[in-house]
Amino acid sequence: MIDQVHSTVPIVDLRFPHRWQAEVLAARPLILPARHYVYPRAAEEVERGALEVLVRPELVRPGAPGLVRRGGETWETAADRRHAQSEEPFLATCALGFRDPAAPTGLWSTPGPEEICAVSGGYAYLIDTITPDRFTMLPCRPVLKVLPAIEDGLLLFVGHRSIWAWGPASGREGPAWESEKLSDEGVTITGIENSVLRGTGWSMQTDKETAFALDMRTGMRMSNTR
To answer: Where does a domain end: 138, 159, 179?
Structure first.
């Protein structure tokens, strides 16, 4: 049962390339920065051990490698001036999910270089660092493990019964797929190779661990689990 003591050591995994810097703060600053965002909005539990993260976006400048033009505009347009304002740091206050060491807390880079993933006691938030009021709170609650699948361009979220994948979808970053139910209580990933995810899940009916294999492109279960 997840309601015990929450882990105080945040995980930081930045294996995906990213265009931001972030720092987990020990407590909310007495003087708040000009930009402060609470996730989810108006959360009642936000004062109960929330994760406080100071985020500093890093925008690509003209002539720099990997310059992304938004909507065909150049840096001389009004949109560029708004982007310059978006370089200001902001405080992300992420409501705590569960107080249990099994429910992770930390920061992850994502397949989208301008996006940050913050997990607070098993509650996962995907935040656009350029437009921080744009965020997704993952329906998978609690998240028990976050796993970057670099070769497949996906960030995986493992729950009690299924796996969620975050990455390219419909030409933009977003939820890629959700697996079917893989376990009655606890999913274990044993490996990922050649775009095939393999793992085991416990079946209440048989009281045994059952192997499964998922196609990383779709999240669909594959018949061959060897």
So the answer is: 138
Q: Is residue 16 domain-shared with residue 125, that is, in the same domain?
A: yes
Higher pLDDT, 207 or 109: 109
Asked if 19 contacts 87 with a C-beta cutoff of 8 angstroms, the reply is no
For residue 112, what are the contacts with CB-CB under 8 A and spacing of at least 6?
173
Going by C-alpha positions, the residue among 22, 30, 26 that lies closest to residue 8 is 26
| Region at 72 (left for phi over 0; alpha for psi -120 to 50; beta for the rest) | left
CA 123 to each of CA 31, 47, 160: distance values in angstroms, whole numbers, following the listed order: 26, 15, 13
Position 168 scores a pLDDT of 78
Q: What are phi and psi of 60, to 5 degrees?
A: -80, 130
Q: How confident is the model at residue 9 (pLDDT cuts 50, 70, 90)?
A: confident
**Residues 191 and 211 occupy one common structural domain:** yes
The pLDDT tens digits of the residues spanning 70-84 come to 444 444 454 455 555
Domain that holds residue 30: 1-138
Residues 83, 9 share a domain? yes
pLDDT of residue 207: 84
One domain, residues 13 and 107: yes
Count of domains observed in the chain? 2
